[in-house]
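SUBJECT: protein chain
CONTENTS: sequence, structure tokens:
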Amino acid sequence: MKIMLSLISFVLADTVLASSEGHGFTWLGNVSHTTGLPDHIIHFVLVLILLLVAGMIYRAKVSAVPNAVIPDKGITFRNIVEATGNFIYGSCESTIGEGQAKHYFPIIMTFFITILLSNLIGLIPGFLPPTGSLNTTIALGFFSFIYYNIVGCKVQGTFNYLKHFAGPLWYMAVLIFPIEIVSNFIRPISLALRLKSNMEGDHLVLSIFSGLVPYGVPIIFLILGLLVCFIQAYVFTMLSMVYINLVASHHDHGEHHA
């Protein structure tokens, strides 16, 4: 349910920030023309649908085995999903802490698989990566921003959370508070620009070399593109984990220091 709500929130945020963009041929171009929605939103909705279908398939496969703890033999869809989940959960444990990893894992995993699939779909001819649009990446960045600030208010209390922006010295608060606030608001913009620029550049390079040398050479850039798609999804996810850890553990650190 948390993942479903997160995905819906992404769509709503993306729709609000959407603007018309011109692109070449896409398989979903007619859908975009009929609905009047930009291509990046149509492709983002497609990503969400694919994730929902994948989730239902995984659940059906897990329900069909007598002991879900035992993995399948060989490389299967279930093993790939579980290996990905174990990888992100391990990152959560090392970044947020073993005690908090289970609590924040659903939203972190949602970030990773949504961004990863949004990146990967752009490698298929005729499809556009939703993350190649600044509207989508800003929506994702501000969702992360809103979420970790809500976590900070919930864990520390709203007053204490805002208070920590003023710094430890009250007579420096007038100077430190606006700097910290501006720094905090730059984070989602930084996340958005980093993701958008890298994905746009990667797919631009791939399309250029595919046009110049249609055989052989593009395979190299396709492999590099797969690596870039994974790294950028992981970087966004890792930074979100760091931000969550900063606000979730600040209260505990303060008590320990006292």
About this structure: The radius of gyration is 21 Å. DSSP finds nine helices and no strands in the chain. Confidence is low (pLDDT under 50) at residues 10-22, 252-258. The first helix runs from residue 2 to 16.
